[in-house]
Amino acid sequence: MVTTAVPILAFEGVGKTFRLPYVKGQAGVHQALQGLDLQVYPGQTLAIVGESGSGKSTALRIALGLEKPDVGRVWFAGQDLTQLDWRGFRPLRQRMQLVQQNPFAALDPRFTIFDSVVEPLVSFGLLKGRALEHAARELMDRVHLPTAYLDRLPRELSGGQRQRVAIARALALRPDLLLLDEPVSALDVSVQAQILDLLEELQRELGVAYVLVSHDLAVVASVAHQVLVLRQGQTVEHGTAEQVLRAPAADYTRELLQAVPGRGVAA
Ligand code: ADP
Ligand code: MG
Description:
Helix content: 25-40%
Bound molecules: adenosine-5'-diphosphate, magnesium ion
Low-confidence stretches: none
Order of helices and strands: EEEHEEHEHHHHEHEHEEHH
Number of helices: 10
Strand order of the largest sheet: 6-7-8-3-9-10
Largest sheet: 6 strands, mixed
Mean pLDDT: 91
């Protein structure tokens, strides 16, 4: 028998339109996503690449249940999220976690690193006392930060260290899927590489799947299994990372690749 992997997350024909403010007495609409199909497999990375406004964050917000698609289906762990109410969605919501672009905004400046890292465990009422402290230390080890940092405040850490804290917190509930929205865009290039290395290591060790959103094909090319290129809400390219990098089908992808240093594609 041939076994085929079942996606942890799948979109089928997902569309999303936003209503725009009335202009000159007319209601406008903006099609943020159109006919989006995607599959994310357990333990693998789907990169979604596109310039600002192409609909990347909207796709992540739909996966998290923060936006409802107008059309289409969203499957997570075999359940159609578009058919679930809040009560049905909550246990699944624990299994996917968001990491945002800006680790400053993601961490409350008044809370210690300990408070931030354990926050999901506390809010889901899973651990307390000694067990919580143990979990915090383990999470710091996972992201290669000294446990002494647990007593510090976010402003005492560098951008890269703060992003490690955000990743540690996202891992606290042992999710199957991390939604990474431009996770390294706010960081220096050298630090970007370190965070991407960490993400790859965590994927190897924990088997967690990623949707890695970026406007920069160079950033994601090396770590993705699949690449999906979005332009104005439409998919212009979708394939294995190797296919997309070696033989891009769309002119637009070729333009993105040409913008990558040292990766010019012959015309
Ligand atoms: P990206 O993350 O790729 O930069 P977004 O998904 O944030 O793109 O946005 C896609 C498009 O949808 C943009 O034109 C944006 O202005 C629009 N948009 C996103 N959210 C809303 C909203 N809540 N209301 C109106 N327009 C929105
Ligand atoms: Mg965005």
